[in-house]
Amino acid sequence: MDLAGVPVLVTGASSGIGRALAEALAGRGARLAIAARRGGLLEEVADGIGSRGAARPVVIEADLSRAGAADELAAAAVAGLGRVEILVNNAGAGLVAAQAAMGDDEGARALFETNLWSPLALTRRLLPELRASGGTVVNVTSSLQSVPIPLLGYYGASKAALAHLTRTLRHELEGSGVSVLEIVPGATETAARDVGLLPWRGRPMRTPPPVSPGSAAEAIVKAIERGRRRGVHPATSLLPLELPVIGRLVARIVTPRIDLG
To answer: Which family does it belong to (predicted)?
Structure first.
């Protein structure tokens, strides 16, 4: 796929992987609508892209933890771009909480609204556009879908659900002309890495060095351009996906090091 001139909606574009991805797509010539909760940061991203000679993205402030926000975002993206040919469901919320304490409280429900229900709502709303153009749905999940680490269950479960629905969506859209791509990031250097937020007993567990958001974004762009069905970055994150016993073993090793109260 040649991305020059292609209209793309990227959610969660104010920081981290989403910001780096917006910059990488703009560098390929894509026309962008970028969305996130923090409008000021989105404006900075758009100004930076415009200052490098690319088309300035359409900026849409949207809180995808709110039910109904996805439909509003889809309408705004189509109004701003004319159409959407690639939808990147990258926005994600994290949460460090014990299930026994939180249950289905407001925070847990907001996480699932952002990580699961909003991607589904955006996909449904934009499918007519995507069918007409032979477009692509890109869902960003996580390697934690296969690693049941204590206190990260809400995040991992939401990403596991999105991963499963991504695979079934691919089958449901077989022959429609719409491509479905799952992106599975491993440890990435962002402002709020889950490993740093856990209440460790003593020092945090040593983990492999995280990759940069820029390298993750480049891997995503290449996966889109090459029409892949799944992209995993770094490649070592394939291990718990293909051999789930490894993910369960990691969780068993990590659990005694976490202060569960």
So the answer is: Belongs to the short-chain dehydrogenases/reductases (SDR) family.
